[in-house]
Amino acid sequence: MNILVSACLLGVECRYNGRGVLIPQAEELLSRHHLIPVCPEILGGLATPRIPAERVGTGVITRDGGDVTAAYEKGAGEVLKLAQLYGCQAAILKERSPSCGSGQVYDGTFTGTLTEGDGVCAACLKEHGIRVYGESQVGRLLEDIER
Ligand code: SF4
């Protein structure tokens, strides 16, 4: 199966701080499925490293007050295009990110406080019927798609 994956979870250094995080299940996933790495923030035109941003209402604001909502929405649209082109029905996206977070995101106060909600890209994919899993839910994803 073709599965979208946040590129930073495969070790690509595209996070706001210029780092990536290689998840331990990457090799197992690659041996069983086709992974399509995407970074919506880069596809939206943002640079790495970049000023951290959090969701505020329906938008996204940087720590210094810049409104980057348009870039986030563009990136989500580009990821959706790839998801549809590759026929992806599931995605593994980085938890808590203002783009990729699913179910919980930081609350816009830049204090490390979480609130219920989705990142812009995760919300877009869900709206189009693509199941979104965080990196702590890889086991559940495999159960769901291989049963
Ligand atoms: Fe990772 Fe998503 Fe942030 Fe890109 S936008 S660095 S893929 S969490």
From TrEMBL:
Keyword Transferase among UniProt keywords: yes
Short name of any one Pfam family annotated for the protein: 2-thiour_desulf
InterPro entries found in the cross-reference section: 2-thiour_desulf (IPR007553)
Listed name of the protein: Purine nucleoside phosphorylase
Record keywords, A-Z: Glycosyltransferase, Transferase
Keyword Glycosyltransferase on entry: yes
Organism: Enterocloster clostridioformis
Lineage top rank: taxon: Bacteria
GO terms of molecular function: purine-nucleoside phosphorylase activity
Organismal lineage: Bacteria, Bacillati, Bacillota, Clostridia, Lachnospirales
EC number: 2.4.2.1
